[in-house]
Amino acid sequence: MAHPALPNCLFCGKPFRRDARNAKHQKYCSEPACRKASKAGSQHAWLAKPANQDYFRGPENVARVQSWRAAHPDYWRRQGASKSRQPVALQEVCPAQPVEPNTDSSSLAQVDLQDALQDLLAAQPAALIGFIAQFTGSALQDDIARTSRRLVKLGQDILAGRMGGADQTRDSRRAGA
Length: 177
Known about the structure:
Layout (H helix, E strand, L loop, with lengths): L31 H17 L10 H13 L6 H7 L5 H4 L23 H4 L5 H11 L4 H20 L1 E2 L2 E2 H9 L1
Antiparallel strand pairs: 1-2
């Protein structure tokens, strides 16, 4: 049995394979320009029917549109309003946390290195935890807690000037003098 010839698109004239779900009615191919021409042709045919010629005119249609708009007051504004409420800059989300160096080691805030991760990082942003997980290659809570304790101790040593067994503040003053 021979296959029927492929139909030609009414807009571009190229042969095309019809969609099986709409094979009896499809007259245009699926190219964007042809789909646009198909829609324009469908609208033109719909408006050419006598019953549809006054569909968008007349007092009853004005009332129909007005009642729909009254039932959907924010329809036109909905999309733009939601976009404007989102934060636009990362700086608004992550405020700066200044570090004040203090040479008096007795006044440094001592963190109990046995605290749980939740206690240790309660005031820190989630970005720090994510950085530690990326840095260590592990997202396990115990690994993050161990690394956090080590980093806090290192930071306290740096701020107190105790790095590598020597007092850095005194050594830097001697080098500059």
